[in-house]
Write a structure and sequence with these properties.
The complex is a heterodimer of chains A (296) and B (294). Chain A has 296 residues and is an alpha/beta fold. Chain A has 10 helices and 14 strands. Helix content of chain A is 32%, strand content 30%. Chain A starts with a strand and ends with a helix. Classes of the chains: A alpha/beta (296), B mainly alpha (294).
Chain lengths: 296, 294
């Protein structure tokens, strides 16, 4: 079976400005693929080129086995898309929007929309202009999902959603994948991508710099740890504990990075009285530096 | 609760672009284009309903006022018109103001309604195309299986219907007022006068559609089309006043507008303007299909 998305050196330039350059990637059917990068990295340009909103300067893309330019309309019938900043006619209610979109998809019903509205706690009766950004985003998610598409293309899907709705969204994504669907989602949130994606492509300055399984990325990724002890810092603490890097210490505080399992660290720390413990993930910038370091 | 189950099925009757595959299972496919067009036109008319009412009632009230005051100004009009210079009368198409229809023709249909509705048509097209692009709505709309050319064609169709509705409402209010005031207006003569505006307005709708295929920003489309509208009106006016530049009038859409109240509807001019609108729309739709949506 063809891949869900297959790009070959896909490039898009805006005059002299960079868009994306030589993006080649394959998203298999049935996987959740995260497209990770900071704002302005080229995530949205890639998505908009795949959807036919932008015409590539060079290279090609195939979606669900069909040419993204020549067969754009047939492709769009089979996908659900949430644009980066979902918006539509402000006077229309969520239900009006869904009824119009159903008609434009050739449907006589709203499909999964009522059930999804319940799950996302979305109010379909209010005009879009009266909805908060998060509530508008829910309508955007419903319109992307209601027709049960094979492929979901979601640009920053959880932006504006509260944590409960983010969890619900992640559950929906997993259900979609478990039912055989494919998800391509862009995000600048590393933690979100780690939670829901099977594989991740990392994009920076318009170039795809890495594609990895999330599990491998997790292995490669480190966390920052800060521990403050009640008394003076024990001298030999953490020596010999695997994965501990770059320890820095003052009288009562220890800072270090940990790769891989954190359990041995916790067990070592537990032998002393700990006043405070903080574990943070690297920022995207740090992650990119780690990748660049590995590449060089 | 699990609600999600991606399907591979045909979405509607008359579907196009159906693709085999997936172990023989049917897949979601795009609806036939007339269905998309009908849905977009219904949507567009709903979006324009307030504007249609506002413009129709506005022009209608103006027409009603003209029709209502006609009995009291009728006698002084002939003297007034006689005092105008011949060139001025020709330039503004003022013949004898001896009937209420001719009075309404001079007051409304020579300048205000054609310029106003041509501008309305430009705004309609700009809102539905580059305006939607500017507001980010086109990204959402074009995520659906809708061809871009259908978006342009629907915009022009909605504009055509909206302009017709405004003209119809204006005609109805004017005629009813004339009837109540005892002005003795002919419904068919007035109807011809108002109907004559439609092809002119649609020619500028076509121009806006062409510009939407070239530009990305609503002000660009609106300003360029409006400037062309005013320039064409000025060329036609100057051409009437100055015989030396009369030949320039051929490039002005107003040259083919004339006065249906005084001379009846000119089928060749109506056909020419309408054909021009269709050609401009077709070119605009092709350009819109080929360009990036930013």
């Amino acid at each position: 079976m063809d891949a869900a998305i297959e790009t070959d050196r896909l490039s898009k330039r805006y005059g002299a400005s960079r868009g994306i350059e030589d993006v080649s990637l394959t998203v298999e059917r049935g996987e959740v693929f995260g497209f990770l990068g900071p704002n302005g990295a080229g995530k949205t340009t890639t998505i908009r080129t795949l959807l036919g909103l932008l015409h590539p300067t060079s290279g090609s893309a195939r979606i669900l086995g069909r040419d993204s330019r020549r067969d754009s309309r047939a492709i769009r019938a089979r996908i659900g898309n949430l644009p980066g900043d979902f918006s539509f006619e402000e006077r229309m209610t969520g239900r009006d929007v869904l009824e119009l979109f159903a008609a434009l998809r050739g449907r006589d019903d709203l499909g999964l929309a009522p059930a999804l509205a319940l799950r996302f706690n979305a109010d379909l009766s209010r005009p879009l202009r009266e909805l908060s950004r998060g509530n508008r985003q829910k309508i955007g998610l419903i319109q992307a999902l209601f027709h049960e598409p094979e492929l979901l293309v979601l640009d920053e899907p959880t932006s504006g959603l509260d944590p409960l709705m983010q969890e619900e969204f992640e559950a929906v994504v997993r259900e979609h994948r478990d039912a055989g669907g494919t998800v391509f989602l862009s995000s600048h949130d590393l933690a979100e991508v780690e939670r829901v994606c099977d594989r991740v492509g990392i994009v920076r300055d318009g170039r795809l710099i890495a594609v990895e399984k999330v599990a491998a990325m997790r292995e490669r990724a480190y966390r920052h740890v800060m521990v403050r002890f009640a008394g003076e810092l024990p001298r030999s603490l953490l020596s010999g504990v695997p994965g501990v890097e770059l320890p820095e210490r003052d009288e009562t505080t220890l800072r270090f990075r940990i790769r891989g399992e954190i359990d041995p660290v916790i067990k070592a720390l537990a032998t002393h009285r700990v006043e405070d413990l903080e574990i943070t993930r690297p920022t995207l910038e740090e992650l990119f530096l780690a990748y660049y370091g590995a590449q060089s | 609760m699990s609600t999600i189950a991606p399907q591979r099925r045909v979405a509607g009757a008359g579907a196009e672009d159906d693709v085999g595959g997936g172990g023989g299972a049917a897949i979601l496919s795009a609806p036939a284009w007339p269905r998309s067009l009908a849905a977009l036109v219904c949507h567009g008319l709903r979006q324009q309903r307030r504007a249609m009412l506002a413009w129709g009632i506005g022009f209608g009230a103006f027409g009603a006022l003209m029709a209502a005051i006609w009995p009291s100004v009728e006698d002084s009009m002939t003297q007034l018109v006689d005092s105008y210079p011949a060139g001025l009368k020709e330039a503004f198409g003022i013949g004898q103001l001896d009937t209420v229809e001719r009075y309404i023709d001079a007051e409304m249909l020579s300048v205000i309604v054609p310029l106003g509705l041509a501008f309305f048509a430009v705004r309609c097209i700009a809102q539905a195309t580059v305006g939607a692009e500017d507001r980010g709505h086109l990204d959402t709309l074009l995520s659906l299986p809708v061809a871009r050319r259908i978006v342009v064609i629907a915009a022009v169709a909605v504009t055509g219907l909206a302009v017709a509705a405004i003209l119809g409402l204006t005609w109805a209010l004017t005629w009813i007022a004339a009837l109540l005031a005892g002005s003795g207006a002919s419904a068919t003569t007035l109807a011809a006068g108002f109907a004559n505006v439609w092809p002119l307005a649609m020619a500028f709708a076509g121009l806006a559609a062409l510009l939407a295929g070239l530009a990305h920003r609503p002000p660009t489309v609106t300003y360029v089309a409006s400037a062309t509208l005013v320039a064409m009106y000025a060329i036609d006016l100057v051409g009437k006043l100055a015989p030396a530049v009369e030949s320039l009038r051929t490039i002005s859409a107003f040259r083919y507008y004339g006065s249906a109240v005084q001379n009846g509807l000119d089928a060749s001019h109506i056909a020419g303007l309408t054909l021009g609108a269709l050609v401009l729309t077709a070119i605009g739709a092709v350009l819109f299909e080929r360009r990036d949506v930013l």
